[in-house]
Design goal:
This protein is an alpha+beta fold.
């Protein structure tokens, strides 16, 4: 057992699933050391206050310790000997690892044939944020968490140039249309990867062509990453994609509204959307049809307190560029959903929504009392507006009309 722990410590490079296993190993090892028997239930630890730290299930420091600083789990200590308070290397990024099982590997296909399909001519609403709860054209019933066709017309999938469901059955990330030529997504989705991206607007079922109105696929011309983006802990996790040609706004495509700068999110329920997994880990399955999850917005104070009870530790600090939603069992964004929107209802406007957040990261998926973490879009409205003007694009396409 000691050899295993030393190997873990020497590598200092862990998957988040492995860290959960490390916590369990530490618990079992300490139980065997003290009692010479395995511990089978958490209740045995709960009754031993001298040996247990409630916030992350690790043992307290013995009274005769020589440590003059803070004793924390070794994976919460960086190479300089300082405590990691940002969650760096401990969080679960919501992007798709792909069929190779690793975010740094790509499954490539030499040839790609584009389906030729015609776009309808019926225009969509000229204003932003219109959700269609009943969809259009066809309706699915009796399914769990599946969106209706064109229910969220701002939702787009972001794919690599040359992508097909055969070469890689999942998009790289999600995004949202804010202008016929602009998409907002998470920076972690499009940084340190090939700049050759495509956007699909009006997509619904990513593996079958059953939609009554076809999707539109457009090349990305320019990727703009926020200049303060920090990939280690995903601070300022936002990017804008400028498209080669405009998306035609028809019945299954439309823009989402953006909140004013520094808008305060109220305690209401919002929707996250994407084609990601339904649960964390190997048992989770990706969705073919766009899924929707309704989630409560939680305050950053509550969110930070909840996250400190996870492997992030009691000193974790939630960065000001984030907001949080969720914390209900089995209801969460997950791997493969990254970059997609968290859409919240606009007060006084029926079935109108603004984008409150961008799916960024979490600790596992769907754990009770563990909210998911989103980029707070309201913190970046000025940046978005300024970037749009650089490309000579107006901002009325995502501004709520009075």
């Amino acid at each position: 057992m000691k050899i295993i722990l030393l190997i873990f410590f020497a590598t200092r490079c862990f998957s988040t699933e492995l860290m959960d296993e490390i916590d369990q190993i530490l618990l079992e090892f300490e139980a065997q050391r003290q009692n010479n028997k395995p511990v089978n239930t958490e209740s045995e630890f709960a009754n031993n206050n001298e040996n247990v730290v409630d916030n992350n299930n690790l043992f307290n420091v013995p009274k005769n310790t020589e440590c003059t600083d803070e004793c924390v789990p070794f994976y919460q200590c960086n190479e300089n000997g300082s405590i990691i308070t940002t969650g760096e290397n401990l969080i679960d990024i919501r992007s798709n690892d792909g069929p190779c099982g690793n975010a740094f590997l790509s499954c490539c296909k030499l040839e790609f044939v584009t389906n030729q399909r015609f776009s309808p001519n019926k225009p969509a609403s000229s204003s932003c944020g219109h959700r269609r709860p009943d969809g259009i054209g066809l309706r699915i019933t009796g399914t769990q968490n599946e969106a209706q066709f064109a229910e969220f017309p701002w939702m787009v999938s972001i794919i690599k140039s040359g992508w097909s469901p055969v070469s890689n059955p999942r998009p790289a990330c999600g995004g949202s249309l804010i202008h016929p030529r602009a998409v907002v997504t998470a920076a972690h989705c499009v940084i340190n990867r090939s700049q050759r991206w495509k956007v699909r607007a009006g997509e619904w079922d990513i593996n079958r062509t059953i939609e009554p109105i076809p999707y539109q696929e457009v090349d990305v011309h320019t990727v703009v990453i926020h200049n303060a983006y920090y990939p280690g802990a995903l601070f300022n996790d936002i990017a804008l994609l400028y498209l080669v040609s405009p998306i035609k706004l028809v019945e299954n495509t439309g823009t989402i509204c953006l909140p004013p700068q520094d808008y305060r999110h109220k305690k209401n329920r919002c929707y996250s959307t994407g084609w990601g997994k339904d649960k964390f880990g190997k048992q989770g399955k990706y969705h073919d049809i766009l899924k929707k999850i309704d989630l409560p917005v939680v305050t950053n104070t509550h969110c930070q307190s909840s996250l400190r009870k996870t492997r992030l530790g009691r000193l974790f600090q939630l960065h000001s560029s984030f907001m949080c939603a969720g914390g209900e069992k089995d209801k969460d964004a997950c791997n493969g959903d990254g970059g997609g929107p968290l859409a919240c209802p606009i007060d006084g406007k029926e079935n109108r929504y603004y984008q409150a957040g961008i799916i960024s990261w979490g600790v596992g998926c769907g754990e009770e009392n563990v909210p998911g973490v989103y980029t707070d879009v309201a913190k970046f409205r000025y940046w978005i507006d300024d970037t749009m003007r650089r490309f000579n694009l107006d901002t009325t396409s995502y501004t709520v009309d009075d």
